[in-house]
Amino acid sequence: MSHHIERINISEIKDPKFLLTMDYPSLRVLCEDIRAEIISKVSTYGGHLSPNLGTVELTVALHRVFDFSKDKLIFDVGHQSYTHKILTGRSLDHLNEPGHTQGFQKIKESIYDPYEAGHSSNSISAAEAFALARDAKKENYDVVAVIGDSSISNGLAFEGLNDLAARNTKVIVVLNDNGMSIGKSVGGFGKFFRKISTGRAYTSFKKGYRKALYKNAFGRKLYSFSYGLKQAMKRILVPINVFDNLGYTYIGPIDGHNIASVEKALKKAKNATKSVILHVHTTKGRGYPYAEHDNTGYWHGVTPFDPKTGAPLNVHPGLVSWSHYFSDLTCSKMKEHENAWLIVPATMKGSGLEKPFAFYKDRCLDVGIAEEHALTMAGALSLNGIHPIVSIYSTFLQRAYDELSHDCARLSANMTVLIERAGLVGSNGDTHQGIYDVAFLKSIPGIIVTMPSSKKIAHSLYNQSFEDKGIYCIRLPREMVIENEADNPEEIPFLKMRRQNLCKEKKIAVVAVGPMVGKISELIKSKGLQAEVYDPIYLNPISSDAVAPLLDYGKVLIYDAYGIKEGFADSLLVKLYEEGYKGKVLIRAIPNAFVGADSVSNQRAQFGLNPDQIAELIDAELRPSAKAKEAKAEK
Q1: CA–CA separation, 252 vs 239, rounded Å?
Q2: The CATH number of the domain where 545 resides is what?
Q3: How large is the average pLDDT for residues 28-49?
Q4: Is 124 part of any domain?
Q5: Which are the contacts of 564, defined by CB distance < 8 A and separation ≥ 6?
Q6: Running DSSP on this structure, what letter comes out for residue 482?
Q7: Does residue 247 lie within any of the structural domains?
């Protein structure tokens, strides 16, 4: 007998209510269509592919069991929320572009997004807060946190799990296990016990039993004895995992791609009287072979690609990313220094470090999403004669500020810190802009922060970082550099600036940070502007020797398209005046704000930081004012 399949036009979805009227064969077709839509839009605009392909059925089941216009759904990180966005009436057209759907949950975007995050492992803490507020206000709704197996290994997730277990408030934590084994199947007795413990009749009886016995002291003692007896029997009959020991009701593992099974488990979780861990198995990248069979993490987050071949569309022949260039340098340093160890917090692929991990397996450590652990461990390794190289995204380094200060700098550790994705990063938006690190790092005593403008300088800085100078940070932008460009290291005087070009009249000095210094210098030369350009190289600390050449200029323009004003720009401003500078200082840097998703070029233009805008500013500053011209004419 043939079955009628109801097919939904994805572009016409307004809210998830339609899901309740669909049968399972129709839902399976819907999931296929959603996957096709995600592949189509991510291949066009870029975004997170594998995490979203793996959570389609899980998200559909969640929206069938709960009403998230009042219940709360919190995705850890949020990069697996594309299906959720489609089901709540949001198009993925122009994904991550200004004014359109963003890649993470966004509170201002929809009532279905109660929370937002671009970094991992905070969903349980946030969910507990929502539940505590709900109970305090005597409101009635469910709170669901969806967290991945890699995210739950972070210390913050463990803190949340530990505290939630101790609270008399209920949260449903869906553990999306798509790789790392968290818990094994618990066998016949376990399934039987958990089926009873989450059944409606059992939970109703448990509530009544506790209420009846708690009316007097003898009843409370009897309840305590019977509860202890039940726990003892449970320990004998049911294999215990970490979640049981913490006091959670554990359900699973469940096939996360079987909507009926997930729904059944979610209904049990909804009916439980205390916090629940629902363990589901999913396949990351499901439905797209390239992503499904990816063992490197390449398909986690991608730029636009050809969906038929998987080939990237934005290729840059003759260019290489700063990350991949530093990967080669890292291999060289690890070959040269046998005491050099590489540490990354789950960013081996994102930072292009496959090569050193392949060549020096015994000295390369991927600690997972555990930035704090990575830095404390690096500091302690340094005390044991090892030179750690820590490769970490700028925005992930924020999470390890305390460890960098207390466990590394305070102990005079020697290490190299490669700060990846420093500066504006475009479409990932306000959660991932790497523009704050100089501002917070300069508050830690003894930290050196640098940013190269060329491969030669980069190579020299990497060499210098092994000279026992303490914590030596090198910032890498998410930009490209010429692949075959010479990179033989040059001698760089420590903590001094480098002059990029010469001009006869010392009217204005332009101090320009990072790789943009080359473009600024070329534009000044092509326009014949009387300005000299300096590459600071060292962003912290700023020495008197570095500032000395600038004191002869009538004006100094500080240009930083890679950090907020409160970072290098303010430090140089203060140092200039401390050294007795009497001229005019202009600053063009990123304001201390959260910068939304857009292209990097548009973001720079928004703040007057594109090279042509800087050239116009220099030209205006060099031209005499109208009044000055009039006065000169009168004379």
Answers
A1: 13
A2: 3.40.50.920
A3: 94
A4: yes
A5: 435, 436, 438, 439, 589, 590, 591, 592, 593
A6: E
A7: yes
Determine the Cα–Cα distance for residues 292 and 54; give it in Å rounded to an integer. 9
DSSP assigned state of 72 = E
Matching residue, tokens 């505290």: 163
Question: What is the domain extent for residue 607?
Answer: 502-628
Whether residue 339 is found in the same domain as residue 228 = no
Amino acid at 191: K
The predicted structure's pLDDT at residue 1:
46
pLDDT tens by residue, 411-445 = 999 999 999 999 999 888 888 899 999 999 999 99
Query: Which helix (H) or strand (E) is 389 found in, with range?
Result: strand 387-393
Give Cβ neighbours of residue 272 (< 8 Å, ≥ 6 apart).
Answer: 170, 197, 198, 203, 249
Question: Is the dihedral angle over the CA atoms 460, 462, 463, 466 positive or is it negative?
Answer: positive
Q: With cut-offs at 50, 70 and 90, classify the pLDDT of residue 196.
A: very low
- Residue-wise pLDDT for 232-262, tens only, equals 555 444 456 778 778 899 998 899 999 999 9
Q: Which phi-psi region, left, alpha or beta, contains residue 22 (left: φ > 0; alpha: ψ -120 to 50)?
A: beta
Q: Name the DSSP class of 407.
A: I
Q: Is 26 exposed, middle or buried, given 0-12, 13-18 or 19+ CB atoms closer than 10 A? A: middle
Partners of 28 in the β-ladder: none
Please tell me the distance from the alpha carbon of residue 325 to that of residue 483, in angstroms, as a whole number: 8
What the block records as the tokens of 215 is 């009316």
Element (H, E) at 201: helix 200-213
Residue type, 291: A
415 DSSP β-pair partners: 471
- For 616-626, the pLDDT digits (tens) are 999 999 886 54
Tokens at 274, concatenated: 């205390």
Query: What SS3 string covers 500-558?
Result: CCCCCCCCEEEEECCCHHHHHHHHHHHCCCCEEEEECCEEECCCHHHHHHHHHCCEEEE
Would strands 508-512 and 555-564 be described as parallel, antiparallel, or unpaired?
A: parallel
pTM of the entire predicted model? 0.86
Helix pair angle (187-197, 217-237), 10° resolution: 150
> Residue 393 is encoded by which pair of tokens?
């995204």
**Among candidate residues 540, 417, 536, the one with its CA nearest the CA of residue 472:** 417
Q: Please indicate, yes or no, if residue 309 is contained in any of the structural domains.
A: no
Q: By C-alpha distance, which of 510, 590, 598, 501 is closest to 554?
A: 510
When pLDDT is averaged across residues 27-53 and rounded to a whole number, the result is 94
Task: Examine the domain organization and report whether 247 and 354 are in the same domain.
Answer: no
Separation CA 584–CA 79 (nearest Å):
46
Other Cβ atoms less than 10 A from the Cβ of 509: the count is: 23
User: Which pLDDT does position 17 carry in this prediction?
Assistant: 95
The whole-number pLDDT of residue 501 equals 72
Does residue 375 share a domain with residue 408?
yes
Q: Which of 197 and 540 is assigned the larger pLDDT?
A: 540
**Pairwise CA distance, residues 199 & 272, whole Å:** 8
Q: What is the mean pLDDT of residues 73-79?
A: 89
Residues 169 and 273 in one domain: yes
Residue 411 and residue 264 share a domain = no
Crossing angle, helix 123-136 and helix 155-166, to 10 degrees?
30
- Please determine, for residue 503, whether its predicted confidence score (pLDDT) is greater than 90: no
**What are the structure tokens assigned to 234, written together?**
């449970």
Bond preceding residue 356 cis, omega within 30 of 0? no
| Lookup result for tokens 């069938």 | 64
Name the DSSP letter for residue 19: G
Are 234 and 163 contacting, i.e. CB atoms less than 8 angstroms apart?
no
| Paired residues of 72 in beta bridges | 143
Describe the strand order of the beta sheet including 508-512 as a list of residue ranges: 498-499, 531-535, 508-512, 555-564, 584-590
Nearest to 420 by CA among 349, 495, 368, 331: 349
